[in-house]
Design brief:
1 helix; 11 strands; Immunoglobulin-like; 46% strand; 5-stranded mixed beta sheet
Length: 190
Protein backbone atom coordinates (compact mmCIF):
# COMPACT_ATOMS: atom_id res chain seq x y z
CA UNK A 1 0.00 0.00 0.00
CA UNK A 2 2.81 2.40 0.91
CA UNK A 3 4.51 1.64 -2.39
CA UNK A 4 1.38 2.61 -4.33
CA UNK A 5 1.05 5.91 -2.43
CA UNK A 6 4.74 6.71 -3.04
CA UNK A 7 4.27 6.06 -6.77
CA UNK A 8 1.26 8.42 -6.89
CA UNK A 9 3.19 11.18 -5.07
CA UNK A 10 6.18 10.81 -7.42
CA UNK A 11 3.91 10.93 -10.48
CA UNK A 12 2.32 14.15 -9.19
CA UNK A 13 5.72 15.72 -8.54
CA UNK A 14 6.87 14.81 -12.07
CA UNK A 15 3.74 16.42 -13.53
CA UNK A 16 4.34 19.59 -11.46
CA UNK A 17 7.95 19.80 -12.64
CA UNK A 18 6.81 19.47 -16.26
CA UNK A 19 4.21 22.24 -15.78
CA UNK A 20 6.69 24.69 -14.25
CA UNK A 21 9.28 23.98 -16.91
CA UNK A 22 6.70 25.25 -19.42
CA UNK A 23 7.42 28.77 -18.14
CA UNK A 24 10.71 28.79 -19.99
CA UNK A 25 9.01 27.69 -23.21
CA UNK A 26 6.72 30.77 -23.40
CA UNK A 27 3.63 29.68 -21.45
CA UNK A 28 2.64 31.55 -18.29
CA UNK A 29 4.31 30.07 -15.24
CA UNK A 30 4.77 31.18 -11.65
CA UNK A 31 7.38 33.78 -12.61
CA UNK A 32 5.18 35.35 -15.34
CA UNK A 33 2.24 36.18 -13.04
CA UNK A 34 1.41 37.90 -9.81
CA UNK A 35 -0.84 36.15 -7.33
CA UNK A 36 -3.86 38.10 -6.09
CA UNK A 37 -6.10 37.14 -3.19
CA UNK A 38 -9.86 37.55 -3.58
CA UNK A 39 -12.54 37.34 -0.90
CA UNK A 40 -16.29 36.98 -1.00
CA UNK A 41 -18.84 37.07 1.81
CA UNK A 42 -21.04 33.96 1.81
CA UNK A 43 -24.28 33.83 3.83
CA UNK A 44 -26.03 30.51 4.38
CA UNK A 45 -29.08 29.53 6.35
CA UNK A 46 -28.44 26.38 8.38
CA UNK A 47 -30.85 24.40 10.55
CA UNK A 48 -29.30 23.64 13.92
CA UNK A 49 -31.15 22.20 16.91
CA UNK A 50 -34.48 22.75 15.19
CA UNK A 51 -33.86 26.45 14.52
CA UNK A 52 -32.75 28.19 11.35
CA UNK A 53 -29.51 30.10 11.90
CA UNK A 54 -27.69 32.51 9.64
CA UNK A 55 -24.02 31.62 9.10
CA UNK A 56 -21.69 34.21 7.55
CA UNK A 57 -18.26 33.19 6.29
CA UNK A 58 -15.57 34.65 4.08
CA UNK A 59 -14.53 32.56 1.10
CA UNK A 60 -10.99 33.20 -0.15
CA UNK A 61 -9.26 32.19 -3.38
CA UNK A 62 -6.16 33.09 -5.30
CA UNK A 63 -5.74 33.88 -8.98
CA UNK A 64 -2.63 34.28 -11.08
CA UNK A 65 -2.83 37.57 -12.99
CA UNK A 66 -0.47 37.65 -15.96
CA UNK A 67 2.22 40.29 -15.52
CA UNK A 68 3.79 39.80 -18.98
CA UNK A 69 2.85 42.42 -21.54
CA UNK A 70 0.49 41.17 -24.20
CA UNK A 71 2.00 41.05 -27.67
CA UNK A 72 0.95 43.90 -29.96
CA UNK A 73 -1.06 42.68 -32.90
CA UNK A 74 -1.40 44.96 -35.91
CA UNK A 75 -4.16 44.53 -38.42
CA UNK A 76 -3.15 44.16 -42.06
CA UNK A 77 -3.72 47.23 -44.21
CA UNK A 78 -7.09 47.08 -45.94
CA UNK A 79 -7.33 49.12 -49.14
CA UNK A 80 -11.16 49.17 -49.09
CA UNK A 81 -12.88 51.65 -46.76
CA UNK A 82 -14.86 50.04 -43.97
CA UNK A 83 -18.53 49.47 -44.68
CA UNK A 84 -20.89 51.55 -42.55
CA UNK A 85 -22.50 49.61 -39.74
CA UNK A 86 -26.13 48.76 -40.43
CA UNK A 87 -28.46 50.96 -38.45
CA UNK A 88 -31.19 49.31 -36.49
CA UNK A 89 -34.64 50.82 -36.69
CA UNK A 90 -35.65 52.70 -33.58
CA UNK A 91 -37.80 50.43 -31.45
CA UNK A 92 -41.43 51.42 -31.22
CA UNK A 93 -42.84 51.51 -27.70
CA UNK A 94 -45.14 48.60 -26.99
CA UNK A 95 -48.76 49.57 -26.58
CA UNK A 96 -49.79 49.52 -22.94
CA UNK A 97 -52.11 46.66 -22.09
CA UNK A 98 -55.48 48.14 -21.24
CA UNK A 99 -56.83 45.41 -19.02
CA UNK A 100 -57.86 44.86 -15.44
CA UNK A 101 -58.24 41.65 -13.49
CA UNK A 102 -60.95 41.47 -10.83
CA UNK A 103 -60.25 38.68 -8.33
CA UNK A 104 -63.42 37.58 -6.56
CA UNK A 105 -63.68 35.82 -3.22
CA UNK A 106 -66.24 35.73 -0.40
CA UNK A 107 -67.31 38.65 -0.26
CA UNK A 108 -64.89 41.15 -1.76
CA UNK A 109 -63.12 42.20 -4.97
CA UNK A 110 -59.40 42.81 -5.52
CA UNK A 111 -58.58 44.78 -8.68
CA UNK A 112 -55.18 44.36 -10.35
CA UNK A 113 -55.06 48.15 -10.83
CA UNK A 114 -57.22 51.04 -9.64
CA UNK A 115 -57.50 52.73 -13.05
CA UNK A 116 -57.30 52.03 -16.79
CA UNK A 117 -57.28 54.20 -19.92
CA UNK A 118 -60.53 55.00 -21.71
CA UNK A 119 -61.34 52.94 -24.80
CA UNK A 120 -61.47 49.18 -25.22
CA UNK A 121 -60.80 47.61 -21.82
CA UNK A 122 -60.38 43.88 -21.25
CA UNK A 123 -61.88 42.80 -17.92
CA UNK A 124 -61.04 39.42 -16.40
CA UNK A 125 -63.21 37.90 -13.68
CA UNK A 126 -60.98 35.51 -11.72
CA UNK A 127 -63.08 33.63 -9.16
CA UNK A 128 -60.87 32.45 -6.29
CA UNK A 129 -63.80 31.87 -3.93
CA UNK A 130 -65.84 28.80 -3.12
CA UNK A 131 -69.12 30.25 -4.43
CA UNK A 132 -69.92 31.25 -8.03
CA UNK A 133 -69.74 35.00 -8.77
CA UNK A 134 -70.62 37.31 -11.64
CA UNK A 135 -69.45 40.83 -12.46
CA UNK A 136 -71.62 43.83 -13.30
CA UNK A 137 -70.10 47.10 -14.44
CA UNK A 138 -71.91 50.44 -14.64
CA UNK A 139 -70.72 54.04 -14.94
CA UNK A 140 -71.54 56.15 -11.86
CA UNK A 141 -74.64 58.27 -12.46
CA UNK A 142 -75.71 56.19 -15.47
CA UNK A 143 -79.09 54.53 -15.06
CA UNK A 144 -78.78 52.23 -18.05
CA UNK A 145 -78.31 48.51 -18.24
CA UNK A 146 -74.98 47.37 -16.70
CA UNK A 147 -72.28 45.57 -18.65
CA UNK A 148 -72.04 41.96 -17.49
CA UNK A 149 -69.66 39.05 -17.20
CA UNK A 150 -71.78 35.95 -16.60
CA UNK A 151 -71.69 33.74 -13.52
CA UNK A 152 -68.30 32.08 -13.15
CA UNK A 153 -67.75 28.95 -11.06
CA UNK A 154 -65.25 28.47 -8.26
CA UNK A 155 -61.60 28.58 -9.41
CA UNK A 156 -62.69 29.57 -12.93
CA UNK A 157 -62.09 32.72 -14.95
CA UNK A 158 -64.05 34.60 -17.58
CA UNK A 159 -62.81 37.42 -19.85
CA UNK A 160 -64.74 40.11 -21.74
CA UNK A 161 -63.86 43.38 -23.52
CA UNK A 162 -65.90 46.56 -23.21
CA UNK A 163 -65.67 50.02 -24.79
CA UNK A 164 -65.54 52.30 -21.73
CA UNK A 165 -65.56 56.12 -21.84
CA UNK A 166 -63.80 58.05 -19.06
CA UNK A 167 -65.47 58.09 -15.64
CA UNK A 168 -65.92 56.20 -12.38
CA UNK A 169 -67.38 52.70 -12.70
CA UNK A 170 -69.04 50.63 -10.02
CA UNK A 171 -68.34 46.87 -10.07
CA UNK A 172 -70.50 44.43 -8.11
CA UNK A 173 -71.72 40.84 -7.92
CA UNK A 174 -75.49 40.63 -8.44
CA UNK A 175 -76.01 37.17 -6.95
CA UNK A 176 -78.37 37.16 -3.94
CA UNK A 177 -76.90 38.94 -0.88
CA UNK A 178 -73.37 39.21 -2.34
CA UNK A 179 -73.50 43.00 -2.87
CA UNK A 180 -75.07 43.52 0.56
CA UNK A 181 -72.18 41.60 2.15
CA UNK A 182 -69.66 44.00 0.61
CA UNK A 183 -68.95 42.59 -2.82
CA UNK A 184 -68.62 45.91 -4.68
CA UNK A 185 -65.78 48.22 -5.66
CA UNK A 186 -64.92 51.18 -7.94
CA UNK A 187 -62.78 51.34 -11.10
CA UNK A 188 -61.54 54.65 -12.51
CA UNK A 189 -61.36 55.00 -16.33
CA UNK A 190 -59.21 57.94 -17.41
Amino acid sequence: MAVVLAAIVLTGMAARTTATSGATSGTAGASACSWERHSKRVVKRVRRHGKVRRVVRLRHWWTCESSAAAPIVTAPADPAPPAPAPTEPTPQPEPEANRVSARASEYYWVLSRPSVKAGTVTVELNNQGEDPHNLNLRREGDGGEPLRIPETGSLQRNVASFDLPAGEYRLWCSLPEHEEKGMHTTLRVE
